[in-house]
Protein backbone atom coordinates (compact mmCIF):
# COMPACT_ATOMS: atom_id res chain seq x y z
CA UNK A 1 0.00 0.00 0.00
CA UNK A 2 1.32 3.44 -0.95
CA UNK A 3 1.45 5.97 1.87
CA UNK A 4 1.15 9.66 1.13
CA UNK A 5 1.52 12.74 3.28
CA UNK A 6 -1.84 14.10 2.11
CA UNK A 7 -5.05 12.62 0.74
CA UNK A 8 -7.01 15.22 -1.23
CA UNK A 9 -10.72 14.35 -1.28
CA UNK A 10 -13.23 16.17 -3.46
CA UNK A 11 -16.85 15.59 -4.48
CA UNK A 12 -17.47 15.96 -8.21
CA UNK A 13 -20.95 16.91 -9.44
CA UNK A 14 -19.83 18.32 -12.80
CA UNK A 15 -17.00 16.69 -14.74
CA UNK A 16 -15.83 19.89 -16.45
CA UNK A 17 -15.36 21.66 -13.10
CA UNK A 18 -13.48 18.65 -11.74
CA UNK A 19 -11.18 18.48 -14.77
CA UNK A 20 -10.32 22.18 -14.42
CA UNK A 21 -9.55 21.57 -10.75
CA UNK A 22 -7.38 18.56 -11.60
CA UNK A 23 -5.41 20.48 -14.21
CA UNK A 24 -4.64 23.20 -11.68
CA UNK A 25 -3.72 20.65 -9.06
CA UNK A 26 -1.28 18.92 -11.40
CA UNK A 27 0.66 22.18 -11.70
CA UNK A 28 1.30 22.26 -7.96
CA UNK A 29 4.83 21.48 -6.84
CA UNK A 30 6.41 20.11 -3.70
CA UNK A 31 3.38 18.20 -2.39
CA UNK A 32 3.16 14.45 -1.79
CA UNK A 33 -0.50 13.64 -2.30
CA UNK A 34 -3.08 11.26 -3.65
CA UNK A 35 -6.32 12.53 -5.18
CA UNK A 36 -9.57 10.79 -4.31
CA UNK A 37 -12.52 11.75 -6.50
CA UNK A 38 -16.03 11.16 -5.17
CA UNK A 39 -18.26 10.90 -8.21
CA UNK A 40 -21.67 12.37 -7.46
CA UNK A 41 -22.80 13.34 -10.96
CA UNK A 42 -25.84 11.07 -10.70
CA UNK A 43 -26.60 12.12 -7.12
CA UNK A 44 -25.21 8.90 -5.77
CA UNK A 45 -24.85 10.47 -2.32
CA UNK A 46 -27.47 12.37 -0.33
CA UNK A 47 -24.96 13.63 2.22
CA UNK A 48 -21.47 15.13 2.13
CA UNK A 49 -20.76 13.39 5.41
CA UNK A 50 -21.50 9.94 4.00
CA UNK A 51 -19.43 10.63 0.89
CA UNK A 52 -16.46 11.91 2.85
CA UNK A 53 -16.55 9.03 5.32
CA UNK A 54 -16.53 6.52 2.48
CA UNK A 55 -13.59 8.22 0.77
CA UNK A 56 -11.64 8.71 4.01
CA UNK A 57 -11.84 4.97 4.66
CA UNK A 58 -9.88 4.42 1.43
CA UNK A 59 -7.39 7.24 2.01
CA UNK A 60 -3.71 6.48 2.64
CA UNK A 61 -2.53 9.94 3.68
CA UNK A 62 -1.50 11.14 7.12
CA UNK A 63 -3.70 14.19 6.56
CA UNK A 64 -7.15 14.24 4.96
CA UNK A 65 -7.75 17.36 2.88
CA UNK A 66 -11.43 17.89 2.06
CA UNK A 67 -11.86 20.51 -0.63
CA UNK A 68 -14.37 21.73 -3.20
CA UNK A 69 -13.57 21.22 -6.90
CA UNK A 70 -13.95 24.95 -7.56
CA UNK A 71 -10.82 25.64 -5.52
CA UNK A 72 -7.97 27.09 -7.60
CA UNK A 73 -4.35 27.75 -6.64
CA UNK A 74 -2.85 31.18 -7.25
CA UNK A 75 0.72 29.97 -7.81
CA UNK A 76 2.54 26.67 -8.16
CA UNK A 77 3.46 26.45 -4.46
CA UNK A 78 0.12 27.52 -3.01
CA UNK A 79 -0.94 24.05 -1.92
CA UNK A 80 2.48 23.10 -0.56
CA UNK A 81 2.75 26.22 1.57
CA UNK A 82 -0.83 25.98 2.86
CA UNK A 83 -0.47 22.37 3.91
CA UNK A 84 2.96 22.93 5.45
CA UNK A 85 1.47 25.64 7.66
CA UNK A 86 -1.29 23.28 8.76
CA UNK A 87 1.08 20.36 9.34
CA UNK A 88 3.30 22.60 11.50
CA UNK A 89 0.47 23.15 14.03
CA UNK A 90 1.42 21.06 17.03
CA UNK A 91 -2.08 19.73 17.64
CA UNK A 92 -5.39 20.68 16.09
CA UNK A 93 -8.92 19.44 15.59
CA UNK A 94 -9.79 20.96 12.23
CA UNK A 95 -7.74 23.42 10.17
CA UNK A 96 -8.75 25.40 7.10
CA UNK A 97 -8.20 28.47 4.95
CA UNK A 98 -11.25 30.50 6.04
CA UNK A 99 -13.13 30.50 9.30
CA UNK A 100 -15.06 32.38 11.95
CA UNK A 101 -13.45 33.30 15.29
CA UNK A 102 -15.01 32.95 18.71
CA UNK A 103 -15.54 36.68 19.16
CA UNK A 104 -18.18 38.82 17.46
CA UNK A 105 -18.21 42.07 15.50
CA UNK A 106 -21.32 44.16 16.20
CA UNK A 107 -22.97 40.99 17.55
CA UNK A 108 -22.29 39.11 14.31
CA UNK A 109 -19.85 36.44 13.25
CA UNK A 110 -17.15 37.42 10.79
CA UNK A 111 -14.63 35.75 8.50
CA UNK A 112 -10.85 35.57 8.83
CA UNK A 113 -8.99 34.52 5.69
CA UNK A 114 -6.53 35.52 2.98
CA UNK A 115 -8.30 33.75 0.11
CA UNK A 116 -10.18 35.43 -2.72
CA UNK A 117 -13.50 34.28 -4.08
CA UNK A 118 -15.97 34.75 -6.93
CA UNK A 119 -15.27 35.47 -10.58
CA UNK A 120 -13.62 38.80 -9.72
CA UNK A 121 -11.32 37.29 -7.07
CA UNK A 122 -12.58 39.56 -4.32
CA UNK A 123 -11.25 39.38 -0.79
CA UNK A 124 -13.86 39.07 1.94
CA UNK A 125 -13.49 39.23 5.67
CA UNK A 126 -10.54 40.16 7.85
CA UNK A 127 -7.05 39.47 6.55
CA UNK A 128 -4.68 37.36 8.66
CA UNK A 129 -0.89 37.14 8.63
CA UNK A 130 -0.40 34.04 10.74
CA UNK A 131 -2.13 30.89 11.93
CA UNK A 132 -5.27 32.01 13.77
CA UNK A 133 -7.55 30.14 16.14
CA UNK A 134 -11.23 30.04 15.13
CA UNK A 135 -14.40 28.44 16.38
CA UNK A 136 -15.33 26.93 13.01
CA UNK A 137 -13.85 26.68 9.51
CA UNK A 138 -15.41 26.98 6.09
CA UNK A 139 -16.35 23.85 4.14
CA UNK A 140 -14.48 24.85 0.96
CA UNK A 141 -11.09 23.54 2.20
CA UNK A 142 -10.38 21.89 5.55
CA UNK A 143 -8.00 19.32 6.97
CA UNK A 144 -8.11 16.57 9.59
CA UNK A 145 -5.42 14.12 10.57
CA UNK A 146 -6.37 10.64 9.41
CA UNK A 147 -5.95 9.15 12.85
CA UNK A 148 -8.19 11.85 14.33
CA UNK A 149 -10.85 11.23 11.69
CA UNK A 150 -10.74 7.55 12.72
CA UNK A 151 -11.68 8.69 16.24
CA UNK A 152 -14.15 11.30 15.01
CA UNK A 153 -15.69 10.35 11.65
CA UNK A 154 -18.41 12.54 10.20
CA UNK A 155 -21.87 11.99 11.64
CA UNK A 156 -24.81 10.67 9.65
CA UNK A 157 -26.71 13.97 9.39
CA UNK A 158 -28.13 14.23 5.85
CA UNK A 159 -27.56 17.08 3.42
CA UNK A 160 -24.71 19.30 2.25
CA UNK A 161 -24.32 21.91 4.98
CA UNK A 162 -22.44 22.29 8.29
CA UNK A 163 -20.25 19.21 7.91
CA UNK A 164 -17.00 21.09 8.62
CA UNK A 165 -18.72 23.28 11.22
CA UNK A 166 -20.01 20.20 13.02
CA UNK A 167 -16.56 18.60 13.02
CA UNK A 168 -15.16 21.80 14.54
CA UNK A 169 -17.77 21.83 17.29
CA UNK A 170 -17.14 18.19 18.08
CA UNK A 171 -13.38 18.79 18.16
CA UNK A 172 -13.82 21.66 20.64
CA UNK A 173 -15.96 19.45 22.86
CA UNK A 174 -13.08 16.96 22.60
CA UNK A 175 -10.74 19.67 24.02
CA UNK A 176 -9.03 20.47 20.72
CA UNK A 177 -8.62 23.79 18.91
CA UNK A 178 -9.39 24.74 15.31
CA UNK A 179 -7.32 27.03 13.11
CA UNK A 180 -7.15 28.98 9.88
CA UNK A 181 -3.87 29.54 8.05
CA UNK A 182 -2.95 32.14 5.41
CA UNK A 183 -3.34 30.71 1.91
CA UNK A 184 -2.86 31.88 -1.66
CA UNK A 185 -6.03 30.24 -2.90
CA UNK A 186 -9.02 31.25 -5.01
CA UNK A 187 -12.49 29.86 -4.25
CA UNK A 188 -14.44 30.42 -7.44
CA UNK A 189 -17.78 30.24 -5.66
CA UNK A 190 -19.08 33.27 -3.76
CA UNK A 191 -19.82 31.12 -0.72
CA UNK A 192 -22.82 29.56 0.98
CA UNK A 193 -26.42 30.72 1.02
CA UNK A 194 -29.13 30.49 3.64
CA UNK A 195 -31.60 28.26 1.81
CA UNK A 196 -34.24 26.21 3.60
CA UNK A 197 -32.00 23.17 3.96
CA UNK A 198 -29.24 25.31 5.43
CA UNK A 199 -31.65 26.71 8.01
CA UNK A 200 -33.05 23.29 8.89
CA UNK A 201 -29.70 21.65 9.50
CA UNK A 202 -28.44 24.74 11.31
CA UNK A 203 -31.30 24.38 13.76
CA UNK A 204 -30.37 20.72 14.16
CA UNK A 205 -26.79 21.72 14.98
CA UNK A 206 -28.05 24.18 17.60
CA UNK A 207 -30.25 21.49 19.13
CA UNK A 208 -27.39 18.98 19.19
CA UNK A 209 -24.50 21.19 20.33
CA UNK A 210 -26.07 24.38 21.70
CA UNK A 211 -25.63 23.38 25.34
CA UNK A 212 -21.85 23.54 24.86
CA UNK A 213 -21.65 26.99 23.24
CA UNK A 214 -23.07 30.47 23.92
CA UNK A 215 -23.45 30.80 20.14
CA UNK A 216 -22.15 29.08 17.03
CA UNK A 217 -20.23 31.24 14.57
CA UNK A 218 -19.94 30.23 10.93
CA UNK A 219 -18.61 31.99 7.84
CA UNK A 220 -22.22 32.50 6.77
CA UNK A 221 -23.79 33.80 9.98
CA UNK A 222 -24.01 33.57 13.77
CA UNK A 223 -26.40 31.04 15.33
CA UNK A 224 -27.91 31.82 18.73
CA UNK A 225 -28.07 28.81 21.04
CA UNK A 226 -30.03 30.31 23.93
CA UNK A 227 -33.39 32.01 24.37
CA UNK A 228 -36.23 32.60 21.95
CA UNK A 229 -33.92 33.95 19.24
CA UNK A 230 -32.48 30.50 18.59
CA UNK A 231 -35.93 29.58 17.22
CA UNK A 232 -36.96 32.82 15.52
CA UNK A 233 -33.80 34.39 14.08
CA UNK A 234 -32.88 31.72 11.47
CA UNK A 235 -36.25 31.83 9.72
CA UNK A 236 -36.43 35.62 10.02
CA UNK A 237 -33.03 35.89 8.31
CA UNK A 238 -34.13 33.46 5.62
CA UNK A 239 -37.35 35.38 4.93
CA UNK A 240 -35.46 38.69 4.81
CA UNK A 241 -32.96 37.28 2.31
CA UNK A 242 -35.73 35.93 0.09
CA UNK A 243 -37.45 39.33 0.05
CA UNK A 244 -34.19 41.03 -0.93
CA UNK A 245 -33.65 38.54 -3.75
CA UNK A 246 -37.18 39.13 -5.02
CA UNK A 247 -36.74 42.90 -4.98
CA UNK A 248 -33.33 42.68 -6.69
CA UNK A 249 -34.85 40.57 -9.43
CA UNK A 250 -37.31 43.30 -10.40
CA UNK A 251 -35.06 46.35 -10.05
TrEMBL record:
Keyword tags: Transferase
Cleavable signal peptide: none
Name this polypeptide is given: Family 2 glycosyl transferase
Domain Streptomycin biosynthesis protein StrF: 8-208
InterPro entries referenced in this protein's UniProt entry, alphabetically: Nucleotide-diphossugar_trans, StrF_dom
Species whose genome carries this gene: Limosilactobacillus reuteri (Lactobacillus reuteri)
Keyword Phosphoprotein included in the entry's annotation: no
GO molecular function: transferase activity
Superkingdom of the source species: Bacteria
Amino acid sequence: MSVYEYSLITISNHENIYQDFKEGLERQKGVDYELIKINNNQHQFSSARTAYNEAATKANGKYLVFLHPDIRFLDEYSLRDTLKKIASINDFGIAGIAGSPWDLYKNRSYIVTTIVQGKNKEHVGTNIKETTEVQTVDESFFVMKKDYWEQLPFTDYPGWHFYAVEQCLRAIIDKKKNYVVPARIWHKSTGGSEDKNYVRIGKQMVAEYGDYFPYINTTVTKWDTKGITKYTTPWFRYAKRQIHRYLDKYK
